[in-house]
Amino acid sequence: MKRFLKYLHSEDGNLESALVLIPLISLFLATLQLIATVNFRNVDMTVAQNQASEQSVWQQINSTDNEVKLASGSPFEKLRLVIVNVERELPQIFPGINTLIGGRKIRTVGTAVIEEQEECWGGYALC
To answer: What are the extents of the domains in the chain?
Structure first.
């Protein structure tokens, strides 16, 4: 019984275990951070594109969006490009990642063309 208790109290292998576990956990968290960041960016790209498509159908432009007027080649048809920007903070899975990379954000862009009908004569309201 004394030998078993002495074995439980011994610290053989603790240093080697720590030398393996700390880099392994850091690698796991860094990998998880990259996976989460890429997935969040993909979701934001989908959201931005859907928002741009919806705004082009309803011919709406929000104050945070950009509008570019395009030359259509026809005096009776006006084309505009709506550019929707979506910004998000990086997910924090790995502790201290924001201080490590300088507080960067995920920025995505969605674009869509607003096509106005000939009857609209270039107006900005729904026809």
So the answer is: 2-120
Query: Do 113 and 81 meet the contact criterion of CB atoms below 8 Å apart?
Result: yes
Model pLDDT, residue 124: 52
| Residues forming a β-bridge with 87 | 107
* DSSP secondary structure letters along 44-88: HHHHHHHHHHHHHHTT---TTSEEEEE--S-TT--EEEEEEEEEE
47 contacts 116 by C-beta, under 8 angstroms? no
Question: In the beta sheet, which residues pair with residue 112?
Answer: 82
- 36-95 confidence digits (pLDDT tens): 989 999 999 999 999 999 999 888 899 999 999 888 777 767 788 999 999 998 888 877
SS3 4: helix
Q: Nearest to residue 43, comparing CAs of 35, 31, 32?
A: 35
